[in-house]
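Schema walk-through. Below, the input block comes first and the output block second. Nothing else is stored per chain. Lengths vary across the set, and this one has 154 residues.
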Amino acid sequence: MLRVKLVAGAPDEPDAGDWDAICATPGPRGVFAQLFYDIAKFSLPEPKITEESEDDVHRVHIIWCGTNRLGVKVIEIESVETSAFPMYCTWETFGLPGIKMTWKYSLEKAGQLGYAAFRHGTLEANFETADDQKRFAEIWQQAIGKTPVFEPLD
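--- output ---
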């Protein structure tokens, strides 16, 4: 098994005031949809909120596109007090043959667009084989338009 993290090739991080660049930046949903379709011939279903919680500081949504057998779990964490802090997001794959991936990023508030200005955090993946990693890289290149560069985690 190959355990890696992305060190180059993440989507561009547009300025929160550049709405054209924000709208043109490919997002995680498109990447995951293409990944699941190309590898598992599975069309990700629309997101469904399965849990919501809130305390004095954070609002948390747990969202599923599919199930824990085949799909993506999304966790969104935002401040209940102010939109000055970004929304933190984690997308994790389940059941994808040859690939297990977790992508953490944040979204800054961009005026009326809401939380939309993308900020890459970390992307870690486990690939069963080098061919799985190569296949992922091809799909990433198609979806993001950049070549992913990985380094080993172990």
